[in-house]
Amino acid sequence: MSKWVTVWGNATSIADRRPETYAKDITLRYPVTCAFGGNAIRLHFSNFCGTEAITLSKVSVAQAVSDREINLKDAALVTFGGSESVTIAAGQEIFSDEIPFRVKPQSKISVSVYLKDYTLMRSAVVITGPLSRGFFSVGDCVFSSVLPLKFTRTTQTFYFLTGIDLLTDDNNRSVILYGDSITAQSWADYLAIKCMSDPYNRTAVIRRAASGTRVLREYDCITYESYGLKGENRFTREISTVSGADTVIIQQGINDIIHPVGTDINPFRPMSDLPTLDELENGIIYYVEEAKRKGLKVLLGTLLPIYGWRTYAPFREEMKNGFNAWLKSYKGADGCIDFDKALRSEENPCAFKDGFDSGDHLHPSEEAYKKMADVAFEYIKN
Q1: Is the Cα dihedral 237, 240, 243, 249 positive or negative?
Q2: What stretches in the chain show pLDDT beneath 50?
């Protein structure tokens, strides 16, 4: 085994600013299902969105027995330049040392991170799905076999840990999913599960998605800063830090269309933020050209139905449909996955098919996310 491949990963974005933004004396534990096996591991941590340095006091990796429990028999201390702790400056990212650690295909491991001192909990991403749940506990539980029930809570927020690489077989690879809340939710996990239904699977699904993000704009106010970075401030960095990737699927643009409402309604959402169709297309062209420079195959995904969403308007529907038509005709990419066609109603193409609307008329239901995974799988299957 001689090739480093990212087996798990998520975007780094901006956590919602709250008075309780700092944490102290807590352990984060993140169980991760590995698509394939390997003989060594390295961890990727990011403080890219932080405004001050953070210190990871102690980190371990272990085989997971259950969500909260690890097997201490082969638990390993993760080091950084030979040291137990590491300080990551604001705006920086680091890799751990390479740690000898045996991982079996489709097994579950857990990464535990202890934060001893006051830590700005800003570089993070919220994700959901059947494979995406973490925990935090009071105290140093890095080498605790079971997290203490009375002092532990679940979390969907993944702080600082942005990637796990395995030293693995040359045939293994990763596929990147890039986008916004649609991709930060369940279809990424369902695609990973579908890939792992093959006992000889060689594909890891790496999610680089953050809710609220837009292709062309980002907010500069604390009310909406957790909606994340715009494309030119995140895309190249996020695809560059995935080892062993050969493909990226890009599904983004709906927030550019639905966010602007006018300052008479919301002072932070001027209509001047609404892009022209040409501007939105050029944003995707930038993505494609950057991905191609990295040697990646690029698949584009059409935008989903929005009929009934609270800012729905005919002009937004027209822009979305025009953008989708362009995505399907654009020759610079290697293909287009028509998620819209797979999820929309035949009777009312502006709306989701029955059972495919989560209820907010923007995000799909769990069944719809499974459908997205099924459709995407045909484009990336081994």
Answers
A1: positive
A2: none
